[in-house]
Design goal:
The chain is of the alpha/beta class. Helices cover 35% and strands 20% of the residues. The chain has 10 helices and 9 strands.
Length: 270
């Protein structure tokens, strides 16, 4: 069966597929990315190639990570005349992005991330922050709002603290459901993430920091005295200059870093 006679690809719910088709939105995204020929671009979930083709036109070369095997051949055919496209049939949640950085060039990641697993993918990518120049992702609007939220906001939480600890977070613009096929039931947004070469706060133990932030927000209505009880007592929280009767949503990134560094120093050895 030739590519022209293949039936149209049906979006698969299990992969969270909503394919971008609005030319105006695509050009706005490309303008924000501003890809150059000498850069190492990596697209997560290229789908039917709406962004892929435009990236290739400007960069000439692109790596892509796509889970859906049914999309790979049509994508390769659609992009064959535009440059070098290397497609990895893999789950982005398990993919080792460090393997792509062997040429010494930092990675520029792009993607319309599946909304049902976007947060786990973001946390997975933080592991590779040292080989990433920047990331431009299309996400559910609510997720982008959480990523960029500050202390005291209703949307401020674990995702806010963890992303802001390692990346500069910038919400760029919003996108309505009509730009996709099938149309999602939520609004979307484009976010730019730039990993810090020097994090804004000293974090002595990244694993312990993540554990403390997770515990603090596990039950938002609990005070720090209760939510962090297994990691540190009220006296130690006070020693960090923080009121143990506060809830996690009142603490800044610097507060969490100070708490984690202090707790890590006093934690019993394994």
């Amino acid at each position: 069966m030739s590519i022209k006679s293949r039936p149209p690809h049906q979006a698969k719910k299990r992969f969270g597929q909503n394919f971008l088709h609005d030319p105006g939105v695509i050009q706005r995204i490309i303008a924000q990315i501003n890809p150059k020929p000498d850069e190492h671009l990596v697209e997560i979930g290229p789908g039917q190639g709406a962004i892929t083709r435009e990236l290739l036109k400007r960069a000439g070369r692109l790596d892509a990570v796509e889970l859906d095997r049914d999309l790979i051949h049509p994508l390769a055919v659609a992009c064959a005349d535009l440059g070098e496209l290397n497609i990895y049939n893999s789950d982005a949640l398990k993919f080792d992005f460090a393997q792509l950085a062997g040429d010494g060039r930092p990675l520029r990641l792009v993607g319309n991330l599946p909304y049902n697993i976007s947060t786990p993918i973001l946390f997975h990518l933080l592991q590779y922050a040292d080989v990433i120049q920047d990331m431009h992702f299309m996400l559910q609007k609510e997720v982008v709002e959480r990523m960029a939220a500050g202390p005291g906001s209703k949307t401020y939480g674990r995702l806010s603290v963890m992303m802001q600890a390692w990346c500069q977070v910038e919400s760029l613009f919003e996108i309505g459901p009509g730009a996709f096929k099938p149309a999602p039931k939520v609004d979307s947004a484009i976010v730019r993430l730039i990993p810090y070469s020097e994090p804004p706060c000293r974090i002595d133990d990244a694993t312990y920091f993540a554990q403390l932030v997770t515990s603090a927000f596990a039950q938002r209505r609990k005070t720090l005295r209760n939510s962090l009880g297994k990691l540190m007592d009220a006296e130690l929280i006070g020693a960090a200059g923080i009121d143990p009767s506060l809830r996690a949503e009142r603490l800044s990134l610097a507060d969490f870093a100070r708490l984690a560094n202090l707790a890590c120093k006093t934690a019993p050895s394994a």
